[in-house]
Amino acid sequence: MLVSEIVAAFGAYYLNHGQNMNSLYSQLYQGFVTEKVFTPVITDNQIWRASEARHSRIVQPFQKAFTPTGTAEFKPVEIRQYNLKADLSEYPDDLKSAWLGFLSSTNVKRTEWPFIKYWMEKLIVPRIQQDIELNEAGRGVFAAPTPGTAGAAGTAMNGIQKIINDHITATRIAPIALGAIPTDNVELVEYFEDYHAGIPILYQNIPMTTYVPEPLVLRYKRGYRAKYGKDTDFQTNADGSVKIMDTQLSLAGLPSMNFKANGSVNDRIFTTPKENAIMLKKGFNNANGIFNVQEDGREVKLLTDWWLGFGFIIPELVWVNDGAA
Questions:
Q1: Can you give the pTM of this predicted structure?
Q2: Nearest to 291 by CA among 88, 78, 43
């Protein structure tokens, strides 16, 4: 526990000057936003399996002879979920002789000190949600952990960007040929209009959302006003997404899509019907504050784990831009 700055500023002793929980402030945490745009599937299976059913052309000109054409085809679908965890430990006694002493207690069970509840509810759970959104859900690339060593950020699971790139490599997703995302805002508006035109016409009139790095939404709004003027301002949907003019396609920013695995700015965008985007979950309530609280001497340990995974039932129904790398 890092209380050295508090001790240096306020002294290595506790004086009750009325400080309490209301004296503790924190910066904003990023919530787990991405889960809202995927269809949840709760399953005990580590790998969720299904099949896409297809049929080739059937209709032909009439003749009396039997000339069969067309056949049924079934393609396998696998979506994997990953086991994620949180292990933490602190010595609450570090708080006793400091301004933060109101978080301590004379109770010999350290697990019942006020600090533990505050620690879990105000610091740990919000940070878990932020870590999932910013490190794992979008740009995560799974790497098996080294035994006995905590795994690095962004290695607990394959995120959306990795899954899309793997489908592109397997030729299941064909990027729309548009080139790099423009730096000019007006050109960006035209880029998204051309992106919509690149979606097969059968799906162009189905309401869908294109998920993009958050800054692109603001740039689109500014480019829209510059291109079309304030008299034809953009339409904002009830969920906050922005409609692309004269289409059923909307734009929404996802924090999980802001950066690539290497930390550089992400330039990948994607669109798919919500029912095609699957989020597997098992025991995910644990990530919202269910812990195994242990006391080892005067050390308090917290343990929890859960399962999570993303994927697409039919990769061919995922549309992306080609400027990303």
A1: 0.93
A2: 88
